[in-house]
Design brief:
The protein is mainly beta. The chain has one domain: Porin, CATH 2.40.160. The chain is built from one helix and nine strands; from the N terminus they run E-E-H-E-E-E-E-E-E-E. A hairpin with a 2-residue loop joins strand 5 and strand 6. The protein is elongated and about 65 Å long. The N and C termini lie far apart (about 50 Å).
């Protein structure tokens, strides 16, 4: 088998104010595979549709008073038709705080629009996995 991939990725940043930054990115991916004349395989279609064609990310980063940060991310991921995986949106937020220069504390929420979503389907007998909504905290100390 041989093939080609082509696509494009575009990102733009916009500083709304000294404290607020917006970023938007989009990517498109196309995979085209061709069986060798001697091949008896019939599985090339599954590999062509194993990656999403379209993905989009919108990100807002806001620096608040008192060393607080508030970030929001919205993702769109296209469907994977061969794996019976539907397109989905994902929304994440993060609230961070720098009490002193070398310590960073944050709380994050991921996949807040839905209690779970499927990212990949069944392949080679493996069951699909669903990504659940989650909230976690993090403390970082740089020394």
């Amino acid at each position: 088998m041989d093939g080609e991939t082509y696509g494009v990725e575009v990102t733009t940043n916009c500083d709304i104010t000294d404290r607020w930054n917006l970023t938007a990115s989009y990517s498109y991916l196309q995979i085209q595979l061709h069986l060798d004349a001697s091949s008896r395989s019939t599985t090339e279609d599954r590999y062509e549709d194993s990656s999403p064609h379209n993905q989009l990310c919108l990100k807002s980063e806001l620096n608040l008073p008192y060393n607080l940060e508030f970030d929001q991310l919205l993702y769109y991921v296209d469907n994977l038709s061969f794996q019976n995986t539907k397109n989905y949106f994902r929304f994440d937020v993060r609230l961070g705080w720098h009490p002193v220069e070398d310590i960073h504390v944050s709380i994050c929420g991921q996949n807040l629009l839905d209690n779970q979503h499927q990212e990949f389907g069944q392949s080679s007998g493996a069951n699909f996995t669903e990504v659940e909504r989650s909230v976690y905290g993090k403390i970082t100390w740089n020394f």
